[in-house]
Each structure stands twice: as structure tokens, then as C-alpha cells.
TrEMBL record:
<comment type="function">
    <text>Co-chaperonin implicated in mitochondrial protein import and macromolecular assembly. Together with Hsp60, facilitates the correct folding of imported proteins. May also prevent misfolding and promote the refolding and proper assembly of unfolded polypeptides generated under stress conditions in the mitochondrial matrix. The functional units of these chaperonins consist of heptameric rings of the large subunit Hsp60, which function as a back-to-back double ring.</text>
</comment>
<keyword id="KW-0143">Chaperone</keyword>
<dbReference type="InterPro" id="IPR037124">
    <property type="entry name" value="Chaperonin_GroES_sf"/>
</dbReference>
<dbReference type="InterPro" id="IPR020818">
    <property type="entry name" value="Chaperonin_GroES"/>
</dbReference>
<dbReference type="InterPro" id="IPR011032">
    <property type="entry name" value="GroES-like_sf"/>
</dbReference>
<dbReference type="GO" id="GO:0044183">
    <property type="term" value="F:protein folding chaperone"/>
</dbReference>
<protein>
    <recommendedName>
        <fullName>10 kDa heat shock protein, mitochondrial</fullName>
    </recommendedName>
</protein>
<comment type="similarity">
    <text>Belongs to the GroES chaperonin family.</text>
</comment>
<dbReference type="GO" id="GO:0051082">
    <property type="term" value="F:unfolded protein binding"/>
</dbReference>
<dbReference type="Pfam" id="PF00166">
    <property type="entry name" value="Cpn10"/>
</dbReference>
<dbReference type="GO" id="GO:0005524">
    <property type="term" value="F:ATP binding"/>
</dbReference>
<dbReference type="InterPro" id="IPR018369">
    <property type="entry name" value="Chaprnonin_Cpn10_CS"/>
</dbReference>
<dbReference type="GO" id="GO:0005759">
    <property type="term" value="C:mitochondrial matrix"/>
</dbReference>
<comment type="subunit">
    <text>Homoheptamer arranged in a ring structure. 2 heptameric Hsp10 rings interact with a Hsp60 tetradecamer in the structure of a back-to-back double heptameric ring to form the symmetrical football complex.</text>
</comment>
<dbReference type="GO" id="GO:0046872">
    <property type="term" value="F:metal ion binding"/>
</dbReference>
<dbReference type="GO" id="GO:0051087">
    <property type="term" value="F:protein-folding chaperone binding"/>
</dbReference>
Amino acid sequence: IRFLPLFDRVLVERLTAETVTKGGIMLPEKSQGKVLQATVMAVGPGSVNQKGNLQPVSVKVGEKVLLPEYGGTKVVLDDKDYYLFRDADILGKYTE
């Protein structure tokens, strides 16, 4: 991706919603629910704190993160949907 977020922003790609249940039943789009998991695609350099020091972003490219249900700015790059979130808006990251 040729996109670099500014400051403490993080570019993520949401994981795709489950369209079939474990029993093989197709789910309509309305009942799929919002996917709150995403993969970090790019991160900004961080933000400057009150002392003037650079505070780096707390996630790294490739990590899987938990997003809030609402928020984020949709960005379309190469016909794919990505979302920009501030570092502080990301709720957590998954560890292997």
C-alpha cells in the first residue's frame, strides 16, 4: 500500500464477516454484524506529547487489533476498503 498515515493514525483492513454459519446456513448481510477485528496495514510516526517528545504508535504493521463498533474514516485504496483510526481509539491487540 502506498499510503502513510500522519501523526498517531493507524490504517487497518477489517476482517471479512462470516457469511455462512458453522452449520452451513447462509447469513443475510443485516444479520452478519459489524466485524470489529482488523489487520494493521500502516502506521503513522506517532504524536508529539506535551513535553515535545514523539510518542510512537502502540501497534505495528501486521498485528490483529480490536476496533470500536463505531468510528474510523473509510479510505478506498486500489478498490479495497480500509479504515483510519487514531491509536487511542484502538481497543486492544490480539496476541498469538
